[in-house]
Amino acid sequence: MKCLELMEVKVILLHKSTAERWSLISEFKAQPDDLLICSYPKSGTTWVQEIVEMIHFEGDTQECGRAPMYKWMPFLEMPHTLVSSVEEADMIPSPRRLKTHLSVQLVPASFWERKCKIIYIARNVKDSCLISISTT
């Protein structure tokens, strides 16, 4: 099994592909009407994304199901070659809805400077972890 390659950014360990693109991510220009969903992985992000879209489109299920989630709510630190990223977030019309798993001290400064709305999901770490025991 291959180990996950990590690199340090501001005393936080990040996946190597995220750390290598750090200058692009950290310089992301938020807009005042952006909404950022910020959470630790496996803590209900997808569920909250769906709720936010239903509110945004006033319950119109046709509009909410128009495209895969990663197309309408980019994941800021995801490499462009995999799914979605900062580059794709820049192409979305306002109001943008974005998501991140970055820790609060790594969220691009423009979100704070522009006073964007942030939904922070906090969950008991015991509920967010999955322990698998292999019998082989």
UniProtKB/TrEMBL annotation:
Keywords assigned: Transferase
Enzyme class, UniProt record, top EC level: transferase
Gene3D superfamilies: P-loop containing nucleotide triphosphate hydrolases
Name the UniProt record assigns to this protein: Sulfotransferase
Sulfotransferase domain boundaries: 32-129
GO MF annotations, alphabetized: sulfotransferase activity
Entry-linked InterPro entries: P-loop_NTPase, Sulfotransferase_dom
PANTHER family from the UniProt entry: SULFOTRANSFERASE SULT
Natural source organism: Phrynocephalus forsythii
Protein family according to the UniProt entry: Belongs to the sulfotransferase 1 family.
EC number: 2.8.2.-
